[in-house]
Amino acid sequence: MFKLFQYKKETLVKVYPVWHRMQTAVDTKTRQLADCLNRQTAKISRRSMIIILVIFCLCWSAASIAVLIKALQRKEGKLAITAIAVPKSLPLPLPLAPLDTATLQALKRIAVFQQYLDSLKVYNPDKYRELQNSRPGLLDSIGLIQHYYSKLK
User: Domain residues of the chain, as ranges?
Assistant: First the structure.
């Protein structure tokens, strides 16, 4: 029987000792795996291997041809893209929960964060714009939360 996993020829490369040890460990594990796979495939006859390979190739080609046929049978030449209306902000359901200490602490944290954003807008406008672009609804949400809870006070 032929061997599927052959030994690699050694290449002489100057490497750092740590990398050399790591490479040696990886090569050892790779060799162990290759030997294990060689032992397992040694039990399979050459004819069985060829049959398995042919069956695999036929299944792979059938799947590829099916995908190709589905792609070519599509009647429209272009994909239709439908626009979705996204509201600028979602209203909070009314009635709002009563203000307890946890809510007040959250509102204080939101106010501190709002002050941080205001100072960021003045002193680092690039970072502020980046934040606006990466989280487009953040500033609106903060304003909306403060607006709704200011009505309760």
Answer: 17-72, 101-152
